[in-house]
Amino acid sequence: MKDDALEPKERDYQKESSDTCDLEQMTEETDTESDTPEKELSFEERIQRKFKGYFPLPVGNLKEPSSTNLVRVPDESHTKQLEKEFRRKPFNYYTLMVVNIPGLSDIPDNIQTCKLETIGGNHSRIALKNILKDKELSSEERKKYEERLCAVYCSLTPQEAKRVGLEHNTIHRFGKDIDIFARIECFRSTLFQRAGFNKKSDIQTKETPVDKNLLNEWKNDLEMITGVENRKKLNNKFRFELFLAQFSTPCWLQLRSFIDNFKGSKRKQKNKISGRQLRCLDGLKEKTILDLLQKNNNQHVDFCKFKAMCDEHKSKSSSVTSKGKHKATLKNAVTEEEKTEPDGEERIITIAEEDVTHLDDSLKKINVLHKENTSMKQKYAELKNSFEQEKLSSQNCKCEADTLKKEVSDLKKKLGNIFKENKELKEDINKRKLASVTDFCASTISVDLNPSPRKKLCTENNTDTHDGKRKRQMNEENTEYKDGEKVLCFWKQDQKWYEADIIEKRSKGYFVKFVLDGVERVLKQKDIKKKKTGKR
Questions:
Q1: Which residue, 177, 232, 309, 336, has most beta carbons within 10 Å?
Q2: What pLDDT is recorded for position 322?
Q3: Spatial separation of the C-alpha atoms in residues 411 and 405, rounded to whole Å
Q4: Is there a contact between 143 and 86 (Cβ–Cβ < 8 Å)?
Q5: Where do the Tudor domain residues begin and end (predicted)?
């Protein structure tokens, strides 16, 4: 019955924990059995040899990876999303994190004193640290976020660390997919690291390396990082990313600012750019790309306009190349190279006029089709622009509707407050009426002319006790309690008063700890009263 009651994610975590135990046994067997040197091992086997196991580690000791081991820059929106998820479910031990200990071949006895780089789960580390900074967290709630389960590696190289980080992002349940620009930035940083530039700012300040041997070594590193089998598959799969990663520094800076402006203006909900959007730059030269980026690099990027400009440049370049090819074919068709006969006399071989006219007709047809294609592309761009304008208008309508909803909700809240005030006023009026009626009745009741002294004492005592209770209630509402003072607190479930200690004062009342069972609560001042001390 307990297994059926578990959530699916918790069941997945149990499966993962069993799989991790099997992995640890496999790694122990491979370490004991295989004594082969590292040069003979493959890239994956070298990473597996440096894996040391799974350990619960304190979040406070986890640190940001070095610039050489960093896969991508952390995203604030993703960290906020993870922070909400962790607050909703604190015991998220199925969110596994990956840690690298640089400079050590094996784990020491006290692992917490080592430098722990989070090469996988850096967003989770930042989110958990933000939660732990919250001062309103109690000691019991703080314990839920202080430790996390981590897969520990020792002395990984930059290529191995990036490979493990990329695989962690693809496998992880709450991991954010790497967009195309983050991948390009990772490729560019590896290129500069291969050239000896290890700082983050080097990819924006230093000139792009162009040496052929260095580029060959860089592509070898990328084969290991991405897990691609050979160079041909790397070029086929990441051709466009490799092209953009080798941009010159001015073109790279323009591209980066263009993408930042695009993310800020159009895609506030999804802070991500897709490969389909950047593919409009494919087939253009670096100079033309730089000119286009400089023209369209504003705070509010019109992506449709930018794409239309890219398509125009592509169509112009294709038309120029097609005309050059047709001219060359005409020249070859009309006159061929001169051939000499064995007697030594020269003659020119010509083609018939019918073939030339046929070629002219085909060229005219091609030009007509090309014009139709360009007109269709322009119509498509216009339709797309109109569609996006309608989309923007619908979004504006949605925003207006949201503002109206907020105004209605505010008005409802104000009405609720007015009703509450009205109720309180009615209660005060009723109390005053009752008090006036009781006073009137007391004055109108006939009193004995010669009352006995015992009756006098009873009436005086009753009035004194009634006035004393009212004074005591007023005093208890106005009294302030000190930290550590022992008081009596009212528990609503039992409808009884229990002994408690005051910890600190809050805006809504006092933060109190019950002596009987150690339960901590925030109670209002009306539910607290001073403890009576016995008179000696």
A1: 309
A2: 56
A3: 10
A4: no
A5: 479-536
